[in-house]
Amino acid sequence: MAKKRKILFVDDEPNILQGLKRMLRSMRHEWEMDFVESGKNALELMTQHPFDVVVSDMRMPGMSGADLLENVMNKYPQTVRIVLSGHSDRDMILRSVRTAHQYLSKPCDAEMLISTVSRACSLREIMLNDEMKRLVSKMDSLPSLPTLYMEIMNELQSPESSMKNVGGIIEKDIGMSAKILQLVNSAFFGLPRHVASPGQAVSLLGMEVVKSLALAVQVFSQFDQSRLKNLSLDALWHHSEAVGHFSKKIYESESKDTNYIGYALIAGFLHDIGKLIFMSNFPEKYDSMIAESREKEIPLSSVELDSFGVTHGEVGAYLLSLWGLPDLVVEAIAHHHSPSRIPVKVLSPLAVVHAANIIEHELSTKENCDIAHPVDIAYFDEAGLADRLSAWKEICLKSIQTGD
Question: What is the number of structural domains in the chain?
């Protein structure tokens, strides 16, 4: 019998806790649940036994949800941290932007809450498996979280946070500013007028999109082509850029949720970062693995799995989970070749990145590109999205025809 997951719910309103108990009664056989009315009580309970997940309200007297989650992050880093709070708590939620894995708005139905907790737990099981631990122990280095991205995140937590201030942070780095403007003025974004400054880009495209672009550009800038033999940094960037744009376009065609569109964009941009980590730490071995993949015409991730026990998707996701990126981004990168591994099949950043990656390979004219994985039809059938795949390919094709 599978071990029960231990879930801790924290809210200062007894009626809310009673409602959660009733709503989640069906999960009694899978979850061991505790309900407490303060952050102080939550931390005391966590000293007695570990929890897999903490779900906390934001506005609570004494210790706020943001303070509680920061304590949990520092003392119990393996615990999944989820915010369950009202739309009016925007300032409090911004304070927790680096300490929470997921955000849910009240009222939240049982299906959404159960799905979020289940997906988060499944993701951590992959991140912490024995193969990953063994591999990471052999690595000399992992890329550090880019300083400019950290500055943007710190700005978002400031009481005086503004789009203008975020634009100013990007403008301080001339090379970064130029790259961001080059990206946002490309035909992929289809903006009606030329964007002259990062501040204007934030205003037109939104914080999530510009933040994602800044992170992707800085991550790629950390790697040195001289250490990459069979792997072209320039080709990988162009592939990743296209997958990021395709993912954004696809998600926009299905939903207007700006947060999820931003998640799809950044997951698309960074879906192959694990390849750079492999090549930087195991250059000769990984070079021969790339050659083997092309010679035998089998997907590179299959060769990785045989040699390392994990794939570049999982290694990239491991890094981004260390950096504290949202779980939906980490999930999309971990499973971008195998979405059926997650328990919930729905429209998500994972679904569109999986599709966008395959479509980009199909439409690419580059030589020596990776052997593409097949479409996970079972996933799309269960998600009710199979009939959308041809339309998504047309969207991507149109982007290429109008792009630069």
Answer: 2
